[in-house]
Amino acid sequence: MHPEWQRIANEFIEATSYRVGELEKGWASRYDFSKRPATYLRYEEAFVRIELGKPQFPATVDLWEVFANRRSKRNFLKQPMTLNELNLLLWGTQGITDDMGDYQLRTTPSAGALYPIETYLMINNVEGLEKGLYHLDVQNWCLEGLKREDTSEIAYLFTEEQEVTRRAAVNFVWTAMVDRTKDKYKERAYRYIWWDSGHVSQNLHLVANGLGLGVTTIGHWMDHDMNEYLGIDGKTHLSVLMASVGKIAGGHWLKDRRPE
């Protein structure tokens, strides 16, 4: 690691670390949810809104078998994903499961139930959807069309020519709206947003594997280019993780247990 990078990393860890007795007791529990930044993002200028509705849930799979056979798989077929499969992936990562009044709970945990993670989709091959860039409106549970275009080459370019992103039916791009978390947790927010994205990513892996889809997380992408493409500033709203999903040979994890 370059010495300057090491210095910056060490300073970040030190600046966001706590010591016993230096914080006022109970300060986080007194957070006023009524004054927090907006929890949900919506694009009024979207060229289309596609209502997703409640997913059609398939027969329950054995959770322990899913854990035992979870693999990152990248050899995607040209076969399209169904819209219901995409809906299941989205519900498993961002679906609202309960209303607590001041806040809503989802299928993934979030520090302080603040949910800073947003989901963008680079759609390449999903039945019933035009190719393009979409955003998930979690509150209204619909897809918002932002750009009509073939995103496969864009994803390929921004991930430094990782073939998996060009072949994927869908490339997930997760972003974090930092102020949602920072308003309560201050400097510590810059740790929490990465944890939140990890929860979301893990659920995607479990749901995709349970459905017999291939999935792999992408940690190497050109942040500046991606942020510009999404129309976000890269500071208060930044890309934090990617994942590619698609159909694979074998069809179902029970029939395809080969290691990576």
TrEMBL record:
<dbReference type="GO" id="GO:0016491">
    <property type="term" value="F:oxidoreductase activity"/>
</dbReference>
<dbReference type="Pfam" id="PF00881">
    <property type="entry name" value="Nitroreductase"/>
</dbReference>
<dbReference type="InterPro" id="IPR029479">
    <property type="entry name" value="Nitroreductase"/>
</dbReference>
<protein>
    <submittedName>
        <fullName>Dehydrogenase</fullName>
    </submittedName>
</protein>
<dbReference type="InterPro" id="IPR020051">
    <property type="entry name" value="SagB-type_dehydrogenase"/>
</dbReference>
<feature type="domain" description="Nitroreductase">
    <location>
        <begin position="68"/>
        <end position="247"/>
    </location>
</feature>
<dbReference type="InterPro" id="IPR052544">
    <property type="entry name" value="Bacteriocin_Proc_Enz"/>
</dbReference>
<dbReference type="InterPro" id="IPR000415">
    <property type="entry name" value="Nitroreductase-like"/>
</dbReference>
